């Protein structure tokens, strides 16, 4: 991972590490906003607290999966644009002219080639991953925070938010890495003339063959890079989110 980053800096410059940041901001603005709103709506109106005021972990898990899946599905076009823009660096290294230069141009190109459906190409594995990641992130943060407040003397403070977000980032990585492995293998497998995969039929087939041929821990290849990415994201998001709620006078998450 470090070698790859250094190679990008050497060949294309430091700022190329942030190539595709605009569609990434688009994606997270949509994705994160929707997942939080849906999670809180489900928590208040669908799978709600018990009569004694407790909120079972299974309800939090279902709400987290649902919120993450819906948020990712809606944000999928921005996710696709982000990947396409980031891949333009490889074309430049090969001496080829860039196909797209801006996020708007990428949206237009995808729509022209595939129509509305083209904007959701590859959405299924991404939705599956988002459901698992939010099962870890949303559910763990909510559960860990309540556990800390109910079982320790810590107040609803920065330290409480920090500890909860650390737990959330780790569990999200544990839940999301297998989906990342499967998604990567499906996307990188050779295909026939019709575009059908030669190694795996679908995500379930890839999961089954990977575990059968390589063992369960093969699903956690690349765990460290995933954790290094998700841990800072979880920490930054939750502490910022809680502070914003405090500043605007909203109740704590």
UniProtKB/TrEMBL annotation:
InterPro entries given in the database record: MCP, MCP_dom_sf, MCP_transmembrane, Mito_Metabolite_Transporter
Membrane topology of the entry: Multi-pass membrane protein
Gene name as annotated: SLC25A27_1
Keyword Membrane: yes
Gene Ontology biological process: transmembrane transport
Organism: Lygus hesperus
Solcar repeats mapped onto the chain: 1-45, 55-147, 156-247
Protein name per the record: Mitochondrial uncoupling protein 4
Family designation: Belongs to the mitochondrial carrier (TC 2.A.29) family.
Any one annotated GO CC term: mitochondrial inner membrane
């Amino acid at each position: 991972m470090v070698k790859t980053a250094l190679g990008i800096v050497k060949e294309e410059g430091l700022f190329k590490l942030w190539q595709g940041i605009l569609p990434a901001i688009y994606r997270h603005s949509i994705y994160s906003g929707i997942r939080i709103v849906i999670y809180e709506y489900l928590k208040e109106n669908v799978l709600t607290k018990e009569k004694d005021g407790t909120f079972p972990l299974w309800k939090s898990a279902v709400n987290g999966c649902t919120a993450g899946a819906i948020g990712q599905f809606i944000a999928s076009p921005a996710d696709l644009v982000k990947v396409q823009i980031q891949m333009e660096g490889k074309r430049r290294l090969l001496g080829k002219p860039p196909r797209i230069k801006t996020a708007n141009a990428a949206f237009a190109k995808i729509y022209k080639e595939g129509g509305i459906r083209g904007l959701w190409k590859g959405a299924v594995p991404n939705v599956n991953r988002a459901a698992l990641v939010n099962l870890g992130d949303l559910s763990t943060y909510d559960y860990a925070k309540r556990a800390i407040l109910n079982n320790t003397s810590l107040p609803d403070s920065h330290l409480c938010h920090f500890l909860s977000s650390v737990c959330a980032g780790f569990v999200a990585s544990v839940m999301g890495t297998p989906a990342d492995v499967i998604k990567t293998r499906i996307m990188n497998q050779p295909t026939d003339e019709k575009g059908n995969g030669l190694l795996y039929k679908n995500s379930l087939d890839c999961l089954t063959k990977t575990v059968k041929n390589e063992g369960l821990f093969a699903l956690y290849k690349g765990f460290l890079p995933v954790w290094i990415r998700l841990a800072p994201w979880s920490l930054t998001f939750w502490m910022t989110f809680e502070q914003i709620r405090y500043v605007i006078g909203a109740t704590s998450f």
